[in-house]
Design goal:
mainly beta; 16-stranded antiparallel β-barrel; 1 helix
Length: 260
């Protein structure tokens, strides 16, 4: 599945619990055993300003966050190690502050232009989103082809418990669709990460409770993640197991805070 796992930790939805107080500008570092470390800095309003990952090798290693008059991120700019702009992602919102679309381009990293749209239900939860890929220069895909189509299912508390993804592959003008499903479980503790890491970058809305496990299965692989929290309910570790027909790999990421 191509969705970012940690994004799902931060996905939001309204629920029946009272939100706990959140100390923003709190997460300062995330590190994996593979030597990938990200550093987080914040602006005067305690919003994410810069995320730097010095060891990453995909054409850029710095993300600069720009905010609009609504207080939400309207643009993330990707820079290489010497400060050259290598790409961007721009966000568009409705009058309720819900993201309705985003578009992105990253050069030199096997990326291309992408455009995402989001569909909400009456409760303000994202129930579908589409990923369109600009393939106007491709000879094997139609221009602006659907790349991914996702469906989201929620529990009574508004937590995403199921993500169904359809992946479109094109070859010789023939489309092949493969499907995968991510299943998520939660504890009963409040998710204090609300607006902590995403902090204004509200792709959807934040889950009310803490993710305990996430299992992502597809025809080509299996991915299983577990999450560990401290006594203040801040996530401190994520362990992800990747398994395919040939191998099994484990990735561990730790998170460090200035608070709690």
């Amino acid at each position: 599945m191509k969705n970012t796992i940690f994004l799902l930790v931060l996905l939001v939805a309204a629920g029946c619990h009272k939100d706990p107080p959140v100390v923003q500008g709190c997460l300062i570092q995330s590190s994996s055993l593979e030597g990938i470390t990200s550093y987080f800095t914040y602006d005067a309003q305690n919003r994410i300003s810069v995320v730097t990952t010095p060891t990453i090798k995909i054409g850029y290693n710095t993300e600069n966050y720009h905010y609009g008059s609504n207080g939400l991120v309207d643009k993330v700019e990707y820079l290489d190690s010497v400060g050259n702009t290598k790409g961007y992602i721009g966000f568009f919102y409705n009058s309720m502050g819900q993201i309705i679309a985003d578009c992105s381009y990253v050069a030199g990293a096997n990326f291309t232009d992408f455009y995402h749209t989001y569909i909400y239900n009456a409760a303000g939860q994202v129930v579908e989103n589409y990923n369109y890929e600009d393939t106007s220069t491709s000879s094997t895909k139609p221009s602006c082809a659907i790349n991914l189509h996702n469906y989201y299912t929620y529990d009574a508390n508004g937590n995403i418990v199921k993500l169904r993804e359809y992946d479109y592959q094109y070859l010789n003008n023939v489309v092949t669709i493969s499907a995968s499903t991510a299943l998520l479980t939660y504890d009963n503790s409040p998710n204090v990460a609300r607006n902590l890491v995403s902090n204004g970058l509200q792709y959807f809305t934040l889950n009310k409770n803490n993710i305990v496990t996430m299992q992502d299965s597809a025809s080509y692989d299996l991915e299983f993640s577990t999450y560990t929290y401290n006594t203040s309910n801040y996530v401190t570790k994520r362990v992800t197991i990747f398994r395919d027909a040939n191998s099994t790999d484990t990735t561990t990421t730790t998170f460090n805070y200035l608070c709690h």
